[in-house]
Amino acid sequence: xxxQAQIEHEREQKDRYFGEDPRSPLAEDERASFDGLEYYPVDxxxxxxRPLNRYDEPEPVVVGTSTDGEQEYLAWGEFExxxxxxxxxxxxxxxxxxxxxxxxxxRDATSGEETYGAGRYLDLEPEHHRTDDGTWxxxxxxxxxxxxxxxxxxxxPLPPMDNWLDVPIEAGEKAYDDGH
Length: 180
Prior knowledge:
Elements (H helix, E strand, L loop, with lengths): L2 H18 L7 H6 L13 E4 L2 E12 L5 E14 L2 E9 L7 E5 L13 E5 L1 H4 L6 E4 L41
């Protein structure tokens, strides 16, 4: 299966989960009328293979949450890439130094307009997002909204200001249209 087909398949699975599963972040009455999330079309221009510029000594970062709380992460490294001719940098975080997965939260020029205002996330799992030569795949077609975009019952970490981009990332999940 091509990477594009895989993304489309994952989107279909997520829509099914949101619309049918009792553990969905959507309230039961919303699930009944749910007809799918909105996404940008899959676009190879928003898929990057980049090395992680890992920090020698990862620093703890306190991140605010959607419920005025705080969570702590480690700033593990950064990715540099080019969007629409502009070079940008995003920090990658870990909640536990022993885990291999990276978390890349971000806001961009679409936040609050076409996409969720608080920002979106990328989860980078080594088995799916790291190539044989050790570079990482940042595929913004996989960018998704945190659960707090669907319900106030959830507490979500907010992207630190270091990950606020001035460029639009017109890929991945769009804003949910129920008023959140």
